[in-house]
Here is the input.
Amino acid sequence: MSQGQFISHCTADALKSAAQQLKSGTLVAFPTETVYGLGADATNADAVARIYAVKGRPADHPLIVHLADAQDISEWASEIPDYAIDLARSFWPGPMTLVLTRSELAPDFITGGQATVGLRVPDHTLALAFLNAFKAIGGKGVAAPSANRFGHVSTTTAKAVHEELGEYLAPEDLILDGGPSQVGVESTIIDCTGDAPRILRPGAISVEMIEAVTGVKVVNRDDVIRVSGSLESHYSPDAHVVLDGHPRPGDGLIALNDYPTPEGAIRLASPINNEDFARHLYEALREADAQGIEQVVVIQPEGDGIATAIRDRLKRAAAKG
Ligand code: TXA
Ligand code: MG
Here is the structure.
């Protein structure tokens, strides 16, 4: 049976009571500009444990703590290099997560036992209002992974959250509806524990953007500290994803709108540019599953910036196992 109360009209009062419920230990799924998050009070071990249970996610994977204001990172992080301050000033609120050396506030059940913590200020009116309401009643931060089952496609609408997680949520858990996510792929994760920023997961904030505001050359990801999205198979629908192939009759197709639909293929999305591609990708993959389509061909977008993030997710969506 599907659980979780759906709040489609998020008034200030509704957000206040959602924040109070979060404080008392329930889970609150909420929109962000990247994807929807499944939130819990980041200082409540039992509530955070429920996130792992609902997602079916291994317990040693660290969670991102969402904050109302960039100033709040000094509570959670003990060392903040100058380039991280530049990044926070330039891109928060926004689709960027900074991995910093943790303070005593950041417990092992958030960091997966690591000495670092991931922090983000999302750029979404409703998310910020919710985070501020939580802060106003003494909340320190909201731990939130993407609101999807482990290894599956992230959610970019409240309806998708309900379909994806409804049967695992408790009756008192909430799903806040803030409309479709405008970016559509998860935040850029930047490790800020070394001399230079290092990208752990590409997103809308690109290498070029990071270098432009910090004046520091970005180091490439060499060894991977636990980023679950960097496992081989991730972001996967039930359908088999094929990259840059030719769709057979009955196959799904996701491609930029100037790419013609071959006879018999089922067009799932026709984005007009790379930003639009990112915005619609996950809903298109979900639609493939909703229609029972077995194979989806995706013609990958070219270029850097958000296209790099799209290709990164597609590579994992297409990986087997
Ligand atoms: O856009 C986003 O980042 C979304 C929205 C909801 O904010 N969240 C998201 O969370 O994508 P999640 O848990 O699905 O992916 C976050 C990734 C995980 O792969 C996790 O391992 C990594 O961030 N991560 C979190 N804290 C980390 C840390 N301290 N060091 C390295 N990786 C970390
Ligand atoms: Mg995720």
User: Anything to note?
Assistant: The mean pLDDT is 95.
